């Protein structure tokens, strides 16, 4: 088996350890970063495996990670909203949402998706070795590089579109950035480009958060005291995101 596949197994094992730690911290219910760290390591796992998508050994773990990510996304959105409310001293609004968050985290810990993920992780190194022996993983570096370059091409194309969709761009930027982080030696990304990617992701993240909060306020009228500030911040975030995206397009173009 190639050194690259050995390294892939080592990285997955490290992420499994991080996920086990995050789960334990979530069970203890004393760590405000546990859910966030769980999701960060799920994202790293998916970014690591995404260039191998289409291979059964990769797809089974990608799907397990995706499902857990799907059921934890609303909880992370709620967690971010609670932090925003607390930052502006709206504890009366934040506290009932903390109750919902704690209940949601307890449900995640009992969810079949969490158990399924760790079952697949436990079996995965052996599955990868079997796939390699059966000849299903020939030239992994070439395959990974091709997928990563395709992600960059899609990002450049989207940036060049005057009618680009910020939601789609946010996902493409995350995909390109996380892929480069997962495989730093496969596609060379200059430090200046990395900084612009991070800046664009941060700017679009702020825009996305405020858009989410305003949508939530339509369903939850008690959030009305924050809507004017969020609308103003949304407009500022749009302008900031567009400026950073222009710089990124110029850099990639």
Oligomer status? single chain
Largest sheet: none
Poorly predicted regions? none
User: In percent, how much strand structure appears in the residues?
Assistant: under 5%
Give the overall average pLDDT: 94
CATH fold type of the largest domain:
A middle domain of Talin 1
Count of helix runs: 9
Annotated CATH architecture of the largest domain: Up-down Bundle
SSE ordering: HHHHHHHHH
Organism: Metapseudomonas otitidis
InterPro entries: CHAD_dom, CHAD_dom_sf
Domain CHAD: 1-253
Protein name: CHAD domain-containing protein
TL;DR of this structure?
By secondary structure, the protein is mainly alpha-helical.
Structure description:
With about 250 residues, the protein is mostly helical. The chain has 2 domains: about 1-135, A middle domain of Talin 1, CATH 1.20.1420; about 140-250, Four Helix Bundle (Hemerythrin (Met), subunit A), CATH 1.20.120. It has helices at about 5-30, 35-50, 55-85, 90-110, 110-135, 140-160, 165-180, 190-220, 225-250. The two termini are about 40 Å apart. The model has no long low-confidence stretch (mean pLDDT about 95).
Task: Fill in the keyword field for this structure.
253 residues, mainly alpha, A middle domain of Talin 1, Four Helix Bundle (Hemerythrin (Met), subunit A), 83% helix, 0% strand, CHAD_dom_sf, CHAD_dom, CHAD domain-containing protein
Show the helix and strand layout.
Layout: H1 3-28, H2 34-49, H3 56-87, H4 91-109, H5 112-133, H6 140-160, H7 166-182, H8 191-219, H9 224-252
């Amino acid at each position: 088996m190639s050194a690259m596949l050995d390294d892939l197994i080592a990285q997955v094992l490290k992420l499994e350890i991080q996920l086990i730690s995050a789960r334990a911290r979530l069970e203890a219910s004393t760590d405000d970063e546990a859910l966030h760290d769980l999701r960060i390591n799920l994202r790293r796992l998916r970014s690591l495996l995404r260039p191998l998508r289409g291979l059964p050994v990769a797809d089974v773990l990608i799907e397990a990670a995706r499902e857990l990510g799907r059921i934890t996304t609303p909880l992370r959105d709620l967690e971010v909203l609670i932090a925003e409310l607390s930052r502006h001293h709206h504890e009366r609004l934040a506290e009932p949402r903390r109750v919902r968050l704690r209940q949601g985290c307890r449900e995640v810990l009992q969810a079949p998706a969490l158990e399924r993920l760790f079952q697949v992780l436990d079996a995965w190194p052996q599955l990868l070795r079997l796939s390699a022996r059966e000849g299903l993983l020939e030239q992994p570096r070439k395959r990974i590089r091709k997928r990563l370059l395709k992600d960059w091409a899609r990002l450049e194309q989207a940036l060049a579109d005057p009618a680009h969709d910020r939601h789609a761009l946010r996902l493409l930027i995350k995909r390109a950035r996380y892929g480069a982080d997962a495989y730093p030696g496969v596609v060379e990304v200059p430090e200046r480009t990395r900084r612009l990617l991070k800046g664009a992701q941060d700017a679009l993240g702020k825009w996305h958060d405020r858009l989410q909060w305003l949508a939530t306020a339509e369903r939850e009228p008690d959030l009305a005291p924050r809507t004017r500030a969020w609308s103003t911040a949304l407009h500022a975030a749009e302008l900031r995101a567009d400026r950073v995206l222009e710089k990124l397009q110029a850099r990639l173009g």
